[in-house]
Amino acid sequence: MSYASFVARRAALAVLAAYLVVSLTFVASALVQQNNLGGQVAAAQRAGASPAEIQELREEFWAARGGSDHLERYVDFVTGFVVLDWGDSHAMNEPVTDVVADRLPYTLAYVVPGMFAAFLVGSLLGVLGAFRRNSVFDGVPRLAAYLAMGVPSFWVVHFLSTEFPSLMPWLQPTRAAVSATPRVNEVWSLAFPLRYAIPAFVLSLGLVAGLLQHSRAESLEYARAPFVKLLQAKGSSRLRVARHVLRNAAIPILTLSFVEVLGVLMLNVYILEAVFNIPGIGMISLYAIENQDTPLVVGTTMVLVLVGIGGNFLQDVCYGYLDPTIAED
Length: 329
Prior knowledge:
By secondary structure, the protein is an all-alpha fold. The chain is built from 14 helices and two strands; from the N terminus they run H-H-H-E-E-H-H-H-H-H-H-H-H-H-H-H. The protein has two domains: 81 residues; 235 residues, MetI-like fold (Orthogonal Bundle). A hairpin with a 4-residue loop joins strand 1 and strand 2. Helix 4 packs parallel to helix 13, helix 11 runs antiparallel to helix 13 and helix 12 runs antiparallel to helix 13. This is Peptide/nickel transport system permease protein.
């Protein structure tokens, strides 16, 4: 099987996974709506409403949500998801897709640089520690990694948000309200990502610790491999040897790191945005939950789920590129 066929198969599996998630989301949404209707009917009965009034209440409830035919609503739900018609937010008074599109730049402003720095620093320090085992280049990063893993991220966030803004005001994140909409010029200006340097730093702390441990452990295994001794015998530089070791260790590193990175990312998005008051996906999701805005809750949740599915797909694509034998299976 060619690499293109391998990628096509993985893409089909990603689409299938997204479809299953959308279907489960519809079921959960339908159950919530049914529960809300039951509460309204019970309240009307306690108020002495007649059967005709209760029936009218039911009809109005389902008419506002696309009808009572679950199959028809399911088809509309899946179709709307594909064409990015995710309904309207009751709390924000605008389409859910517009809300998500407005909030996403705020989240990406600290997630992208934080993840990039974590992968770069964690991988390099792990490989360096494997080649300089039991030296200061190995011990100090490992000690720092253990400390980073032992300190809760919310404590680091609280400490930095209360102490460092007074010392470095240019790093203080924007205190934007949930209802505020980011301006295009603001998002793409240099000052925008700089204001989110502290959240990016805190996000990278938890990721670097795990990546360093995984990179060091896998690099140690390959550092003793025969091909490394052959490269060293030929007089290859340490950089070239490290590059070969990292390439061979990349697949197990990705395998071990993906779930951990995804878990840390999903949790910290809510923590960072709540503490720093960043009006991103995590903040707007909490706002939707507090206001019982079901369409917005579903929309923000789907964004995070799709990120996980997309990340898993990219992981498989990297597997096939780094190890062609996987694509041939």
